[in-house]
Amino acid sequence: MYLFFLLLFTKTVADLVKKHGLEDCQSFIHLLDRQIIDSMQTTTEHCSLLMGAFALDVYHEGAFYVEGELFILARKLQTFIEHHGGEVKLHCKAIHVEKRGALFTVEDEYKQRYKAEYVVSNLPLGQLLGLLEERIVQNLSPKIKERQGTVGACTMYFALEERVIPSDSPLFQQVLTGKGVAEGEHVFLSLSKKGDTLRAPDGYRTLACSTHVHLDGMLIVNKC
């Protein structure tokens, strides 16, 4: 069993599609791309087979609703970490990571430095490589260093009066408007559940409308 998973470790979802002779079925690949881009921020060509299989299974099982939006889960994780002796730093950006011996040192924007045996990052590769010292980058595999193209999300939030929303409206929808997977050609809609007053006051509901965008060459400005 372990050998089986090791053999799949270097494969992509595209490899599995090709194995079954479906590489020319563009409509099928298009569907897979749009499912994977939402959970893995990449397409079948670059998505790890094992991670992609797990991501696609989420849609097979169906999405579930979180009262009060996903920040509720983030707060629960923060409480759990602090309860077990950990510390959570909010509004604090890491700007540099270096390694000396067995320890990593992470420096934040306030010049505070933290040492750890392990560092877990959720940044896209393009941004992560910019944080690492050159010596660490040189030791990475060429496949990681050569990956190009960062995909992000552009999201708009709306507050809607309950009376304008059809009673049979689903809470989650994917709208396919073109052949691509970004720049508005794939839109994900998330509607708050009726009665969820953690998201909107009584008589209103929220609607989040998001699409993936290519970040290469974009100017990103943070405003307070």
From TrEMBL:
Alphabetical list of Pfam families matching this protein: Amino_oxidase
Amine oxidase domain sequence ranges: 73-204
Domain of life: Bacteria
Identification of the protein by name: Amine oxidase domain-containing protein
Taxonomy of the source species: Bacteria, Bacillati, Bacillota, Bacilli, Bacillales
